[in-house]
Every structure is written in structure tokens, then in C-alpha cells.
Amino acid sequence: MAGTKAIFITGAASGIGRAVAQRFAREGWAVGLADVDSAGLSETAALLPKGCASIHVMDVRDADGWVEELTDFTERTGDRLDVLFNNAGVALGGPFGETDLEDIERIIAINFTGVALGARIGYFFLRKTPGSCLLNTASAAGIYGTSGAAIYSATKFAVRGLTEALDGEWHGEGIRVRSLMPGFIDTPLLDRGVEASNETVRDRVRRAGLEFTPVEQVAEQAWQAVQGDTLHTVIGKTAKRMKFAARWLPGKIRKQMRRGG
């Protein structure tokens, strides 16, 4: 792996993380696969060219785990970390007033604290590689507050804010900071149940007549994002419509959210 461009991906056991791993591996990059799901990581690794990937079982909420696994990965890559992809996240839907307090704490810890820890600890490694990039997975839910997914939406706003702040702070050090803001992606996250409902997130999206964006499209946009100069890459028709409405039709989108999305 030493001397090869290198990307470290959290949430790599499935979904966007797996697709991005495959996309970068096709370009000959060394890929660090990180997740709490060891079986899923092994499945992802089996899809990649032999010898290009390393497996890192870790919880993004654990600062010591971040240090240990990034150290291990960069020792394999000759001290290179070209891209840190802060992608791990969990979804939660349902009325905010009925959401368990433990679930609120868990979503914040994984979706935002984990991203902040990755950025803060990853900074030490990224600054050693000229032209490196921190890539964060935000969401269309970080464009306008999404009713029925309040705490998830709030964490994605936080990721968006952190991305914008670090883009300013780290520019002078040559570290690029970018985010992906996809709409609904066809991943296992959509199979989670909605609080106080028999529906899954997938069921609700289908009932609303919204489209799913293939993970392969997100992976391609991730590749483009780390090459280009766009701060936030908005992906999918739903996300683009939300961006347009939030800017030009704020009253309309507000009324839509009051009706429950």
C-alpha cells in the first residue's frame, strides 16, 4: 500500500461507504474500511481488488479508536491519508416529542460527535499529505429542517456547519473540506422503522412518491467532490428540489413541512 493514494472510510460495511470503497479501489487507491460491523467489512473487502484494503473495526464515538485505527492505516500507507471520508451515520424518523431520550443521544453521538472526532483526530494525519481532503456525508435533510426526522436533520445541519467552518480554517494549510448532500439513498438505513408507526423509512419515501438515488451515483459524486472545488455536492432530484425551494420558495417548503413533509 505504501506510496499509493489512500482513503479511510467510516460506515464502510454497507451502503454509501461500500460503494465509495469500490469506486476509489478501481482507481488503484489503498482503502481503509472502518465500521462497527466486522462481518459487513469483510463483505466489502471481498468486493475489492486483493491487497488494496485493510479492515478497521471501530466505533466513531470512541476517540481512542480513531487514533488507533488511523495510526494503523497510515502505517500501512507510508504515512499517507489523501481522503478521510466521514460517512458513518444512522437514521431515525418519527415525532420528535415521542422520541426516546436515549435515541436522541445516540443519533447525535454517531452522526455528529463521531464526525467531529474524525475531523479533529484526522487533522493530524491529513496535514501530512499535501492536497488532502476531509469529505463528510451530510444530507438533503441539512438543507431545510425535515419534519418527522428532526434530530437526524439537526445532526446533518451540524455536519454542514462543521464542513463550512473547516473549509475556512484549513484552506491555508492545504486541506480541502467537502460534503455530500444526497437525498434518499437506497441503503439499509431505509429499512429502519419510523417511531410510532408500522412503516419503515423506505415505506414512507415510497408513499410520498420520492425517488431513491443509487449508491453508485453517490460514489461517483464522492470521487468528483474530492477532485473538484465544490463545497457541498447536492445529489439526487429530491435534494436539488429542496435546495431550490429553500432558497427561492421558503414559504412553500415551510408549509410542506407543517403538513409532515
UniProtKB/TrEMBL annotation:
Belongs to the short-chain dehydrogenases/reductases (SDR) family. Keywords: Oxidoreductase. The lineage of its organism: Bacteria, Pseudomonadati, Pseudomonadota, Alphaproteobacteria, Sphingomonadales. NCBIfam families: PRK08267.1. It comes from Stakelama pacifica. This is NADP-dependent 3-hydroxy acid dehydrogenase YdfG. It comes from the Bacteria. InterPro entries: NAD(P)-bd_dom_sf, SDR_fam. SUPFAM superfamilies: NAD(P)-binding Rossmann-fold domains. Signal peptide: none annotated. GO terms for molecular function: oxidoreductase activity.
